[in-house]
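Protein modeling request. Please complete all fields; requests missing the sequence field cannot be processed.
Requester role: graduate student
Desired output: 3D structure, token encoding
Chains: 1
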Amino acid sequence: MNQQTGSEIAKRLSPFAIVDVHYEGDEATAACVVAADWGDETGVEERVVRVSGVQEYRPGAFYERELPCLVAVLALVKRQVRAIVVDGYVELDAQGAPGLGAHVHSHFGGATPVIGVAKTSFRGSGFAVSVVRGASKSPLFVTARGVGAEEAARLVRGMHGSHRLPTLIKRVDSLARGLSAPSERG
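Delivered output (186 residues):
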């Protein structure tokens, strides 16, 4: 079996999109930053879209609320991305119960690997790969489909930034919350 090195996996999964959504009532702002490489400090493309009429949150069905928003912002991306990073879990347990990222993966026909980066523990998170970055004592929890979770964790660990959250994950969060305007790149 031919195993790829970390740099080969990073190259194969570049460029990649990082997406996030922020809600205000029945409206949402979905944001996306596209990076050319996993270690980049800035994106090559940024997109933001306002979505009206989002569904109410239903326990166990978060993806029904978030997936349409993510699809809307990804539809604006001009570059072909080879991976998508979501804020949350791809899988919800060791048996592969689908989380938001699994629904994103399925929506795109399983052709685009999806990596979930969660900031909080879910059901103990023993099924996720813990990634500690910078001086933080709190891990990020990484899950994936279309790429191994350990490989995905290495990619997240190697993203730019010296803090717990990689620079571009903080950037997309800032765009979704309306704290920053998208750049004119891309």
